[in-house]
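Thread: "does anyone have the structure for this chain?"

Original post by V.I.:
We have the sequence but no experimental structure in hand. Need at least a predicted one for the grant figures.
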Amino acid sequence: ARRRSFTGLRGYIIMAATFVSYQQDTADAGTEVDVTDAGLTDAEEGDMMFAFAYGLSNSTHSWTPPSGWTSISSSDFNDSYLEAFYKRRTDSEPSDHTFTFGSTGDLAVLVLVYENDIDDSAYDDSNADSDTLVAPSLNTSVDDLTVMRIIYGDNADSVTITEDAGTTSRADAGTSYVAGKVSDEVIASAGASGTSTFVVTNGTLADTV
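Reply from O.Q.:
Generated one for you, tokens below.
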């Protein structure tokens, strides 16, 4: 079994978090997304799971997560809506993690698993209809803190996302109309994390957690 070091559920990571695995699912013109738990390989009880749920719709913008998930924060821009959730993994996870959107839309959900804990108060976002998106800076209070950069975009034909050279790509999701990417980086010294610039075809939302 892997060795872990945890602080409290709402505390900062005291060591750089270790990425474990991810799974994604999408829906075109749908209302829910089912992320298969079996795809989260090597995930163990006590790990932290993060979900980044994106919806493209000109109607109701809201996500209802499965039982046990807590919202970190959300970003709303024009027809695009992104919400971030987390959950500490248990020994009896369901076969699917079903996220339900408040209206019919083009949807994508990425679920990532990390060893170690999180600070769910550290969050910021930016948005634009642009081919470059800048994930904003956060102020960290400890050394060796892992921050995640979350990018989503939409396009009538296709979406491609290229991560900042200073980050490590961890997860990708996409449909004919929406796409997402999560990358991370370790901030060696406490203080401003700095920004990350991503190249996107018609990007809309860029978040840092």
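V.I.: this helps a lot. The two ends are 27 Å apart (CA to CA).
O.Q.: and Confidence is low (pLDDT under 50) at residues 1-15.
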